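Chain X:
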Amino acid sequence: METSCRICSGPVKGSVDLGVQPRGNAFPKPGELAGEFFYPLIVGMCDSCAMVQLMADIPQEVRYHDQYPYRASNSTVHSAHFAGVAHRLLRTELTGRDRFIVEIGCNDGVMLASIAEAGVRHLGVEPSQEVAELARSRGIEVLPRFFDEETAADIRAGHGPADVIFGANVIAHISHLDSVLKGAVTLLGPDGVFVFEEPYLGAVVEQTAFDLFYDEHSFVFSVSSIRAAARLFGLDLVDAEPLAIHGGSMRYTLAKRGARRPTPAVAELLAAERARGLDRHATLEELNRRAERVRDDLTSLLRSLRADGKRVAGYGAPAKITTVTNYCGIGADLIPYVCDSTPSKQNRVVAGSHIPVVPPSVFRQDRPDYAVLFAWNHAEEIMEKESDFTGRWIVYIPQVRVL
């Protein structure tokens, strides 16, 4: 399978095939399973700019809607992280008079809450109405739209140029990345910066984290692909900073061409990526082979536990669970339920695999023998919360093992 790159129009060849998949964050109600949306989850790399991307393009209106269930504030780790991001920006880019920050995909306002509290002029851009209302309830000004070049022009006309544009776990979700980058050029002031953080391709490859591929992740970025994309639209990559969050992310900083000098970290990370082959199809092909081994080992373990009469539950229902359960063919026969603390996901089912999602109280009352940790990037937080669990945890990243 081959298509054209969404960024540079170069040839893209599919290398990772995770089968036919539903939307990662759909979580339908049990009585609303008819007409589920499915698409081929195949991931490829551009020969020209090395951008890793989904071969299929799912319309953003299908992925993000008024009932979108993700709430960033539900995680104490995420809340602390974004408070730290806000305070860092307040110390660096948002000093002085009348500074202005725009956050793309502000969700429930977990980051902008600290900005608003500091009295700094701000605007959150959030297309999902329910989470936008949560942000507004925290005193945050929100524009209920998708971010693109037109939105950026309207914001600049109404609010003036931005000193900072920020996005977290959202820029890689936007298939029209070209319009986002054009919008950044339109909206930024002369010395403004576009700062965003996303799951990092190097971490995905290193950890065999194939479950980070799903419909919302139109791209998985690397330093080299972001630098190439930025250059196409009059921007420079001026800094890149590895982060531990989400199992391994990267924070990128872009500025208008010539406005800032790149830090030494950019050249160092580019050299490291070349050495690791993050710009080669063979690296993704090897990731595909390792994902197949995880699939086979996980299903074999779960079938063996079922044959032995052991009770297995799932813990955590991030979008990743949809990829794993559908790719591996895991349904409620192997995992009768998965618990999650997000109220908007409870009493629903995982798309495609139809595993029921229940509150954590069910897990504590049921006391299963084993629990598959689908929210593996929150392992420490979850294990501390469930310290009374006397069963054993099953993890599958980077390989299947019982803890």
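Chain Y:
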Amino acid sequence: MAASATLLSFISMCIVLAAVPQCLGRRGKYKYEPNWPSIDSRPLPSWYDEAKFGIFMHWGVFSVPSFGSEWFWWHWQGKPLAPYVEFMKKNYRPGFTYPDFAPMFTAEFYDPKTFAEIIDASGAKYVVLTSKHHEGFTNWPSKYSWNWNSMDVCPKRDLVGDLATAIRNYTKDVHFGLYHSLFEWFNPLYLQDKKGGFSTQTYTLDICLPELHEIIENYKPDVLWSDGDWEALPEYWNSTEFLAWLYNDSPVKDTVVTNDRWGQGTSCKHGGFYSCNDRYNPGTLQKHKWENAMTIDKKSWGFRRDAQLEDYLTTDELVAILAETVSCGGNLLMNIGPTHDGRIVPIFEERLRQMGDWLKVNGDAIYASKPWRAQNDTKTKGVWYTSKMEGAVLSVFAIVLDWPITNQILLGAPKATNQTQITMLGYSNQLQWKQAPSGTGIVVTMPTLNPAQLPCQWAWVLKMQTV
């Protein structure tokens, strides 16, 4: 083990056993202490709340079979499911093992610059790549994953490092982030700790924590998206000790944001932003910053060759999810799965570019916005609100998901004044409005436009001032 990992193990064991006074005595030097009240007191770096929209990418050995989901190995040999077992029987020789897929993870078409350009075109302000999923394969040349990483076997390159460099060199203001699974389904050290009721920490100290330090120190991600924590308590993972180091002494201590998956019982309770559960979208304003991590492919985070067109969310649906998420104070982390040979397939690319086209017109309603006093409209369905201070003026944005058939839309939430002005993002003229006949809300007349004149194709944003 490297010297830094040895020191890490020593410090971790000091804290766990509370047996070395000089180790414990150092806590006073740090701003954040290794306990949840202190960790949770750290303000979330402002860039994250302002970003609103990010791209998730699940990529690994599971991208080779690209069948069912990224949990392929587990569904085949962990807790077998019939479709996975039958798929292997029909298509692969007897005795074929999951590691036999690794030489096929070739990534020969992987062009990090192209990835960066597509991500930038999507309008996303951050990207989160899987550094390691539950299969344990690391997408970087980890010293702690011998012969089960992207350098020792195919694709013989540092996938993480290449993308980190491309994002920083070829995008305007996209933050680079990494997903990391704490546990590994079949790692013998983890299984040994698990068998003993997690009374030992061999896997944590020899694999998990050294890997975390490695990706933070080598790639300096602004997002650390933790997962795979649910089988063991945070004490097993030494989560608070690691987070105290991350927030106090790491090279990204001032910029990094983390989620809430740091051990059994921490989800939706501790950490930077709350991811709670996959595809978390409460539909109401939350007290704590949260993120809706979801997939364009409704059934999988990894690429699936067996996906049908109906399995993909449309751009219209994705814009609606973005509007609802941001209105309720969340960020949207939208996932795609690259292929084993290193491509972002056309349907994913199309969705990303179309989201970017929408944001080019309507980004003022999304980026750096804040929730308004109402999240969705009280009279008309499919209208979500955001707000933003523009100088001394508060602008309120109504994101209208469906163009009204009558060309007039009733908004129940705004209270108009004689100075109220309403425009549509992407359209230069002011819109006409009047008080609603009921006395509650306003009726806005949408502009008369043919399809070629519409500022965008999916949802339309009304900007209201002095309401």
